[in-house]
Amino acid sequence: MTKKKSKVLVPTERIERAILLIRGQKVMLDEDLARLYEVETRILTQAVKRNLSRFPEDFMFQLTPAEWKNLRSQFVTSSWGGRRYPPYVFTEHGVVMLSSVLNSGRAIQVNIVIVRAFVRLRQLLTSNTELARKFAELEHKYDKQFRVVFEAIHQLMIPPETKRRQIGFRLKT
Fold first, then answer.
1. What is the C-alpha radius of gyration for the chain, rounded to an integer number of angstroms?
2. Which of 12, 36, 22 is nearest to 119 (CA)?
3. Spans of all domains in the chain
4. Which ranges carry the KilA-N DNA-binding domain (predicted)?
């Protein structure tokens, strides 16, 4: 028997970078999903609008103009050209529903990868929360004996401040 080489449709890291936190939910933009499914964004939104009853607000919602403006400023996109309306965003459940609406082999395969990315992010968050809880328990239990050790660990947990290098020529004086 020969094993089939599984072709990676989309790297998980690419999907994880496309997952955003909006209104306290992990979501993906319609244009990012359209790119992954290899369809035009308008085709994706048309399919969704034809099946709107499958997408309640906890599956999909449209950004407000203020949210869209804020998001565009974060991505430093031009206000000229491009979209004329705020994008739709899809939660993990909305992404699953998209595979039934788009009904293509690629949509199904890409959805599997996307759902796995959502699950992986949830597991990372849970493991970090669990680790912090266990650390707090240990710190409380052995507070006096290991104060120096815990202080050192706390210092390691603080993200380092990055110093910006000056750009340009420097004169030696």
1. 22
2. 12
3. 12-157
4. 18-101
